[in-house]
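To the wet lab folks,

You asked to see what we're planning to order before we commit. Fair enough. Below is the target structure as tokens, and below that is the sequence we designed to fit it. If anything looks off to you, flag it before the synthesis order goes out.
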């Protein structure tokens, strides 16, 4: 039976429905709640591990918004997170890092959410570009694996003739004819965006595959019954077993290719050229790939960190003291199981088990007495009309007035020399004079261009007010020529 047919058999699908976390999410009563929250928090902003308190606050606000539409939910935000991170659900992975607890979305949960996202009707479905991709991949495999010299020379000769003909046409006409029309450009751009996003989604499954490899090695080490020297020889002979696996070799090739400086420069220049094409101007804001390289690096770095942690765990498993503790635990479990088998059918009379320690008992009178909470008394005196004789009203006439036209002129001066400028660059030339009020004025100007705010980049703005140096931290703000009022 072909492998695909095996995966679509009744028995396999029945087991998936009962055991797979993705299917469990789709058939849950609160699937809309969980899927919407996972997309809003993890998949949409392309975030990985989130600190527990931050995720708890985000879920609290999300439940509050949903409550206004659907009514009260049965559980608290903390209960939902603990439940979703439980192994019986498997939608979130809870782990400790540097003394703090974090949550990350699991690969099955991401697959379920992305499948739900794919159900919406697409206005444009490209088929020609995908067909060409299939042909190009097959041709690449055939050409790069063919060792026949005549075939290779014939292929290179045909390419040489094609290039020579194009060079001749350009020299005669002085014009370059576009090889793709607007529809083909749009189709290929959307396909590139979908593939680039899919790479980010694959990283969670890559991490899970690495963990599965580590669990297999750990199981082999724990069950090892021969000498420690032979165990070390086995580990050293299979050194770096994770990176030498097929998954590991593919990931390391991706990482090396991504970190080459010439590849980074080429990708950056190509994206700038593609996104400036007229055919994609209507979709570039919604499907921008400008930050995809940074997102790839962050996701791949998270996998690298996981690899380091797994390698450290593997080394710890080889440690003699740890092996001794693991084996003693397994021996205790086997001892309990054997005694349970011996007692089977013997009834419950007589001595069943001895306990070396006594249970701790806390009597009612040993507990602390109930202390009623203190109630805060609020005084609300009646407001009376004043005559102004009890104080000065000069502060009313000393309000700070920010001239927005002046701020706009500051930005326009710098935009006259370049296409875009950040708020930090504007303040370096025109420092703040009115403090936070003037800074808010710049924010109001920037709000006219929604793309001017970069959420995942922060700027530290230092300014002086009343003889003191103050620091403001905000999202990176970019003013662009032709956007808003500029």
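Sequence we intend to order:
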């Amino acid at each position: 039976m072909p492998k695909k047919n095996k995966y679509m058999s009744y028995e396999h699908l029945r087991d998936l429905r009962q055991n797979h976390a993705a299917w469990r999410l789709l058939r849950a009563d609160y699937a809309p709640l969980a899927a919407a929250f996972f997309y809003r928090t993890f998949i949409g902003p392309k975030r990985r591990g989130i600190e527990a308190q931050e995720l708890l606050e985000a879920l609290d606000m999300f439940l509050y918004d949903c409550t206004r539409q659907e009514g009260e939910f049965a559980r608290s935000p903390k209960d939902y997170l603990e439940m979703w991170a439980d192994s019986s659900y498997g939608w979130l992975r809870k782990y400790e890092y540097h003394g703090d607890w974090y949550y990350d979305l699991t690969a099955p949960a991401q697959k379920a959410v992305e499948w739900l996202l794919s159900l919406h009707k697409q206005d444009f479905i490209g088929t020609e570009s995908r067909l060409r991709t299939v042909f190009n991949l097959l041709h690449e495999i055939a050409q790069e694996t063919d060792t026949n010299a005549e075939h290779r020379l014939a292929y290179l000769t045909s390419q040489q003739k094609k290039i020579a003909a194009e060079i001749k046409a350009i020299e005669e006409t002085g014009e370059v004819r576009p090889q793709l029309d607007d529809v083909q450009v749009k189709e290929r751009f959307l396909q590139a965006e979908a593939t680039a996003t899919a790479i980010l989604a694959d990283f969670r499954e890559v991490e899970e595959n690495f963990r599965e490899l580590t669990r297999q090695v750990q199981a082999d080490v724990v069950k090892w019954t021969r000498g420690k020297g032979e165990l070390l020889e086995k580990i050293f002979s299979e050194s770096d077993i994770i990176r030498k696996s097929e998954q590991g070799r593919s990931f390391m090739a991706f990482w090396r290719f991504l970190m080459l400086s010439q590849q980074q420069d080429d990708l950056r220049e190509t994206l700038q050229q593609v996104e400036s094409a007229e055919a994609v101007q209507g979709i570039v804001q919604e499907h921008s790939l400008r930050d995809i390289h940074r997102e790839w690096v962050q996701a791949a770095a998270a996998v690298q960190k996981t690899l380091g942690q797994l390698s450290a765990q593997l080394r710890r498993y080889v440690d003699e003291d740890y092996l001794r503790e693991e084996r003693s635990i397994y021996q205790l479990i086997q001892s309990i199981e054997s005694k349970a088998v011996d007692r089977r059918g013997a009834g419950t009379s007589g001595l069943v088990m001895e306990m070396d320690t006594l249970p701790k008992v806390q009597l009612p009178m040993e507990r602390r007495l109930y202390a009623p909470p203190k109630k805060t008394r609020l005084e609300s005196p009646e407001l009376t009309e004043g005559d102004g004789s009890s104080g000065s009203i000069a502060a009313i006439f000393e309000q700070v007035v920010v001239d927005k036209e002046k701020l706009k002129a500051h930005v326009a001066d710098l935009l006259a020399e370049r296409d875009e400028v950040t708020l930090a660059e504007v303040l370096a030339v025109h420092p703040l004079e009115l403090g936070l009020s003037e800074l808010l004025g710049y924010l109001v100007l920037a709000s006219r261009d929604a793309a001017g705010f970069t959420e995942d980049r922060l700027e530290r703005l230092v300014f002086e007010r009343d003889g003191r140096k103050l620091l403001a931290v905000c999202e990176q703000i970019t003013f662009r020529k032709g956007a808003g009022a500029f």
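Structural context that might help your review: The beta strands are 50-51, 92-97, 100-105, 420-422, 453-465, 468-480. Residues 150 and 182 are 38 Å apart (CA to CA).

Thanks,
Computational group
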